[in-house]
Amino acid sequence: MVQGQRYRMPRCFIINTNKGLANEKKGRGLTRGLNTRKYTRKCGQKPKIVIPKGVNRPVGEHSSKHATEIGVLIRLETPMQVEGWKKIPNEKKEDLFRKLVEKLTYELEEPHVVHCIWKSFAKQYSCFRSNAHNYYSKMKKEGGVSLARQRVYDKLITRPDDWLWLCDFWETAKFK
Predict the structure, then answer these.
(1) What is the pLDDT of residue 85?
(2) Is residue 152 part of a domain?
(3) Which domain of life, per UniProt (predicted)?
């Protein structure tokens, strides 16, 4: 072997219970919001999220942390066994809001900031459910409803009851 060159081992075929036989490499995994915690520990304060009036979305150095933290809360803590964001009890929504402002600093006295946060939660919830439904539809097309129910969406792997409820919901006349 020439100096400076590395010997590359061929990737082996692995069995992924969700996807079957595949020649894959492990990915980075699901986002957990670690950069926000690291920043808070290092700087001694929470990242400040700036939402200018008229723009109605986060801008600036820490704007991506807003979406990341909401996404983590949606994935891990938001009820899925409801028809949509509007059907989630207000107490649960307030709890999610509190958890978000425990991690990030906002100008909560500004009504447009609070409105933007709620819009972000609703939009991310909707996108999460849409992505889960697209995955379900793909699995259903490949092997029917029973296969789709067995192959839990990766982001709901820790919440199999929620996945089964969603699968049942997507088959109802009310959803279709």
Answers:
(1) 98
(2) yes
(3) Eukaryota
